[in-house]
Design brief:
Layout (H helix, E strand, L loop, with lengths): L2 H15 L4 H5 L5 H9 L6 H10 L4 H27 L3 H8 L10 H17 L5 H12 L12 H16 L4 H10 L14 H15 L3 H18 L5 H14 L3 H18 L2 H15 L3 H4 L4
């Protein structure tokens, strides 16, 4: 759905709210067939026509544009609330909120995509759909695997891709994670969403974990380096320790002992500064189990 169609449908929604027929709205302004072309998004409504339509609806043209932006933002904020509940593992609460929007005709195609992603995630987490079924749902949502040929990706597409990777890896299907690795490690990778800077590091971290479990250590080192550089460039620490940990373990597995120890020191120094003892202990146990090294022997600040 393009912007012209979104705006046209918004105008038609205002018409309905005013209990006005299409014929009454269009009389003396444009033909009904031309109005329907605007609703399809074939062309944008020219300002000369929009002024008359706004006046017929008893709005100024500035009011129309303000209401359009407000409705779009209200939709997005409502869906984002559902998304944040999912991230906080309040899945039942997310479902209770999302079920109210299942029959909503969203103003924005992006908002619809965002909502559909959230609702698929909710259904899977509540075990309402199987792993095989949810893979099909995610794939249809973003047109996977054909979407891997896109020139750019938004937050929902990348989020759906990492979910496909996570679920597929549990079924010993490595192709999705290899596909996402190829996309993220490509110099031409273009992330087009104006989302918060903390989003991509979590994707790099999740993919590095999957690749590590697949024992594809060289790819882990590649993707964590990209993620670490991204964090440094944007001055965000989100998922930073996780990437350093997987970078360290992968280097150690490949015999790059010095590089592995260097990454381990950086990882645990960050955790030490955070002063979250439970988190530090969890990382420590994971590191010692996977590396077969004692952390106290390589880091002297403990």
């Amino acid at each position: 759905m393009n912007e012209a169609r979104e705006f046209g449908l918004f105008i038609d929604g205002l018409r309905i709210e005013r209990n006005m027929s299409r014929e009454d709205l269009c009389e003396g302004v444009m033909s009904l067939s031309q109005y329907k072309r605007y609703l399809r998004g074939d062309t944008s409504i020219p300002n000369s026509k929009l002024v008359m339509i706004a006046d017929r609806l008893k709005f100024s043209i500035n009011d129309i544009h303000f209401l359009f932006r407000q409705k779009h933002n209200d939709e997005y904020n409502s869906i984002n609330k559902i998304y944040n509940l999912i991230k906080a593992n309040s899945v039942q609460e997310a479902y209770n909120l999302a079920i109210k929007y299942t029959k909503t005709a969203f103003l924005s195609e992006y908002n619809k995509l965002f909502f559909d992603f959230c609702f698929i995630s909710i259904q899977y987490r509540l075990k309402m759909v199987s792993s095989v079924h949810v893979l099909d749902m995610y794939s249809r949502l973003i047109d996977y695997p054909d979407c891997s040929n896109n020139d750019s990706f938004n937050m929902i597409e990348i989020s759906a891709l990492i979910q496909i990777c996570i679920i597929s890896s549990k079924m010993d299907n490595l192709e999705p994670s290899n596909t996402l690795y190829r996309l993220l490690s490509s110099p031409s990778f273009n992330y087009s969403s104006a989302s918060e800077s903390t989003f991509l590091p979590s994707i790099y971290s999740s993919l590095s974990r999957i690749l590590y479990m697949q024992k594809d250590y060289e790819k882990v080192i590649d993707i964590t380096k990209i993620g670490i550089d991204y964090c440094l460039a944007l001055e965000t620490s989100n998922a930073f320790p996780h990437m350093l940990l997987f970078n360290s373990l992968s280097n150690i597995k490949l015999g790059n002992f010095d590089d592995g120890i260097e990454s381990a020191k950086k990882c645990f120094m960050l955790l030490y500064v955070e002063n979250k003892k439970a988190n530090f202990e969890s990382f420590k146990q994971n590191f010692e189990k996977q590396s077969e090294l004692k952390l106290s022997e390589i880091i002297n600040f403990m």
